[in-house]
Amino acid sequence: MYIEEITLTHYRNYDQLSVSFDKKINVIIGENAQGKTNLMEAIYVLAFTKSHRTPRDKELIQWDAEYGKIEGRVFKRNQSFPLEVIFSNKGKKAKFNHIEQKRLSEYIGAMNVVMFAPEDLNLVKGSPSERRKFFDMEIGQTQPIYIYHLGQYQRILKERNALLKELQRQPQADPTMLRVYTDQLIDHASIILERRFLFLQKLRNWAQPIHEGISRGYEQLNIDYDASVDVSEDMDSEKIKIVLEEYFNKIESKEIERGTTLVGPHRDDLIFYVNDKNVQTFGSQGQQRTTALSLKLAEIELIYEEVGEYPILLLDDVLSELDDYRQSHLLNTIQGKVQTFVTTTSVDGIAHDTISQAEIFTIHNGYLVEER
Amino acid sequence: MYYPEPISKLVDSFTKLPGIGPKTAVRLAFFVLNMKEDDVLDFAKNLVNAKRELTHCSVCGHITDTDPCRICDDTERDSSLICVVQDPKDVIAMEKMKDFQGKYHVLHGAISPMDGIGPEDINVASLIERLKDEEVEELILATNPNVEGEATAMYISRLVKPSGIRISRIAHGLPVGGDLEYADEVTLSKALEGRRDL
Ligand SMILES: Nc1ncnc2c1ncn2[C@@H]1O[C@H](COP(=O)(O)OP(=O)(O)O)[C@@H](O)[C@H]1O
Ligand SMILES: [Mg+2]
Ligand SMILES: [Zn+2]
Q1: A1-112+309-372 belongs to which homologous superfamily?
Q2: Where are zinc fingers of the kind C4-type found along the chain (chain B) (predicted)?
Q3: What are the extents of the domains in chain B?
Q4: Which is it for strands A67-76 and A367-370: parallel, antiparallel or unpaired?
Q5: Chain B CB contacts of A160 below 8 Å
Q6: Distance to chain A for B22, nearest Cα, Å
Q7: Tens digits of residue pLDDT in A310-322
């Protein structure tokens, strides 16, 4: 799939922009603070209705404007269709083929995007919540129902935690309501875990050979799911449910004492191993970066496997961060199959081959000029 | 801004209405000044009467001008079947489709610890009393299909289950995360047909 064109209205530092893209490689050159990331973000938001760098939608609207709008045309499965996301002080609206989609889970997945930005190099080193976010976004965009379960889970979790705080103050109170929330939480948690396990198995299958390739055969990657409860990857949701039920039953009084939910998918993490050593604690910076890159490349293949088309790849300021070998490995993997956006402050440090095939844009203060 | 006191008081009253901020309140207050005196008197009288003459039915909690309400009083209706809803507006929505022949119980809200609403803050206790006294055979839980409504339904179901009364939950046809009052009549009928046992 690829994005044919995009139109931004009052989006970040773009007052008005309409631009058509190349099906293969688009290179966007500009000094700092000119709007390169803003443009990448706009494509990302068109896919997810959410920014990759802020949870506050308001920031996306141009300062002093009433609303901000992103429109795009995407070509997928042999046809092209429009997508639209509008932000205003009344909230946001997302339209697929001119029709407003009331539920996030019905919109996401229309267009698949993989973003690779310098922050992602920290995926391995960063906090567990970053790894969970990586997981959740990637599962969500190929299985929209996952987003629904995640949303319900978070909602129930908030109610449950509020109730646990109350019970902490009055431990003698009737626990019936707590058990209701426990049941509801488990319903969604077991599905979330099942989907994460299935995803992990596929991710691992793709990431391992890729990692081996990038490391010229020297490194073996492995990925483990670090669950807060004693569940394992071979369990289905029914089995997971039984384990969770037992576990929550056992820790009920402890949870009341602490006033919060102690276990569940919101507490889980991923552990990466290179040659059987935990990369987060023992890996070199190079190994951590290779791991992050392997995961992103694996994601591209995984989306192809699930959706039947390659996603759109956004490389924001990241290509020049990679050494020549990793850069060429990345570009070889996508080899004209994947519509790719590369942003950079200068063309130095980017392989000549890439530049010669690409459509080049320069960007200055929210104005985009097509060079070739 | 300094207004003569009667206007200030009127502005203050308008801001008590939902969705009305200070600016709109001022606009409405000045609008009232230009209305015909008869219309203003009617308006004031209607406000007071709506409040005075309407109460909550002591049986089901629905808004009514007679107690018990006309629905509770209607001997033609099947009193072995009670549909539990969150809001009087839900009763009105269900009555419009004229399919349901049982009676109602209005909770006036849903349980949400986050908003400080516990079981004791909604109309559950009187439902349990009602189940003891009346010969109820089936309870349909038609709380909203979002987390709060779902949790409230499960709570009630846990309380009632030991009594052996059949409990069902409106199952599908309703938008998840949506409010019952937005559901159109066709989806509501479907939802009623498709109720499932809890
Ligand atoms: N809501 C907004 N309205 C107008 N300008 C904005 C808004 N948000 C960010 N900007 C401006 O956008 C610029 C940053 O653009 P960005 O795309 O992050 O730069 P870069 O080209 O370095 O990636 C800054 O000048 C910032 O002031
Ligand atoms: Mg940038
Ligand atoms: Zn009544």
Answers
A1: P-loop containing nucleotide triphosphate hydrolases (3.40.50.300)
A2: 57-72
A3: 5-53, 59-197
A4: unpaired
A5: 113
A6: 18
A7: 999 999 998 888 8
Cβ–Cβ contact A77 with B under 8 A = no
Mean pLDDT, all residues of chain A:
93
Residue A113: strand pairing partners: A312
pLDDT band of residue B187 (cuts 50, 70, 90) is very low
From the centroid of its chain, how far is CA B67? 16
Name the residue facing A166 among B113, B176, B177 (closest C-beta): B113
Interchain contact A368–B (C-beta under 8 A): no
Q: Count Cβ atoms below 10 Å from residue A75 Cβ, excluding itself.
A: 16
- pLDDT band, very low/low/confident/very high, at B34 (cuts 50, 70, 90): very high
Q: What is the pLDDT of residue A121?
A: 80
Class of domain A121-308: mainly alpha
pLDDT at A294 over 70: yes
What is the pLDDT at residue A249? 97
Q: Domain B5-53 - what CATH class? A: mainly alpha
Beta-carbon contacts of A210 under 8 Å, excluding residues fewer than 6 positions away, are A294, A297, A298, A301, A333
CA distance A127 to chain B (A): 27
Q: What ipTM was estimated for this complex?
A: 0.78
Cα of B57 to ligand 3 centre, how many Å?
Answer: 5
Residue A323 pLDDT level (bands cut at 50, 70, 90): confident
Which of A102, A150, A155, A165 should be substituted to probe chain B, the one whose Cβ sees the most B Cβ atoms within 10 Å?
A155
Contact A184 B148 (CB under 8 A): no
Give residue limits of the domains in chain A. Answer: 1-112+309-372, 121-308
B106 CA distance to ligand 3 centroid (A)? 9
Model pLDDT, residue A357: 85
Q: Which residues surround ligand 3, an ion (CB under 5 A)?
A: B 57, 59-60, 62, 68-69, 72
| Candidate from B146, B151, B177 with C-beta closest to A181 | B151
Asked if B155's CB is within 8 angstroms of A176's CB, the reply is yes
Cα dihedral B85, B88, B94, B98 sign: positive
Q: Which of A107, A20, A9, A14 is nearest to A339 (CA)?
A: A20
Q: How far apart are CA B69 and CA B127, in angstroms?
A: 16
Architecture per CATH, domain B59-197, reads as 3-Layer(aba) Sandwich (3.40)
What is the length of chain A?
A: 372
Give me A236's structure tokens: 């289905």
Tell me what percent of the residues of chain B surpass a pLDDT of 70: 85
How many Å lie between the centroid of ligand 2 and the Cα of residue A32? 7
pLDDT for the residue numbered B172: 44
